[in-house]
Amino acid sequence: MVPRITSWEDLLWVSEEVNEDTGDFQYTMFATVEDDMIFYGQLNKPKADILFQDATDSLARIPDDEIFPRWPQSLALTKAPEELPPDVFVKRPRLALYDVFLEHKVVHLLPKGLVEEAEAMEVLGSQPHPNIVGYHGCHVRRGYITGLVLDRHLHDLNSYLKSGHVIQGKELFIESLESAIHHLHSLGWAHNDLNPTNVLVAEDQRPILIDFGSARRLGEKLSTSRGTKGWIDCEMKDYTTSETRHDTSALAKLRAWLDNPTFEG
Fold it and tell me: Measured in whole angstroms, how far is the alpha carbon of residue 118 from the centre of its chain?
């Protein structure tokens, strides 16, 4: 029985895909979750033209073994409590890449990526920092890791400023973020994807660094998750290794952006 979609807020994620060369609309894809099962749908209509019944009818469950890593792993990982604490967010595999990975027959990279991020979170969870998102372990259902349990904060920096909020102490904000980055570097890791959507804003306006899907030990090769266009220090084709300079360059860009933020879309 697939879940019934009654609003776009019901969805885990939705995206309109366009042709990279022409900019022409191709299709709308979306996903929702129920009882830790992922349902995916795709329609050849813009989001504005889609009826919720049509979206519901297009949903099909993605098999657990296609999208989730097995539990336990050879790597020692923390299991989150069965009863999740309040104010947490369960981060799922990177569904935005599902259609592309399916087309190229590399869907196995989605569960692999979740395990790689879990490894980074285990390191950070054992040596926490006030400006790095809190980690509660792996959410395990039906013998699979269905997500990573993290502290919830309502806004990322991009949406926070776009909605009209103001960061009162910009210098302290950047210094706190810099402290989080230095902490990560001191552990022998780099983030490799610092940008305004990967920084949350806590209620007390502290920056909270999130999204460690591109984080790797210094010197390691980056996988399919690597940086964000406009926030990297070289061409994407050359952005292949985990390095501290990626983070220091992105932090300088973010400092300048915070003084004069611009928003896409």
Answer: 12
Answer whether 0.90 is exceeded by the pTM: yes
Measured between alpha carbons, how far is 109 from 93 in angstroms, rounded to an integer?
10
CA distances from 214 to 182, 199, 228, 246 (A): 16, 14, 10, 11
The two tokens of residue 116 are 């790689």
Contact between 191 and 228 under an 8 Å Cβ cutoff? The reply is: no
> Closest by alpha carbon to 200, among 165, 162, 157?
157
Model confidence over 100-148: pLDDT tens digits?
Answer: 999 999 999 999 999 999 999 999 999 999 999 999 999 999 999 999 9
- DSSP class of residue 193 equals -
d(CA 17, CA 141): 31
Q: Which helix (H) or strand (E) holds 94?
A: none
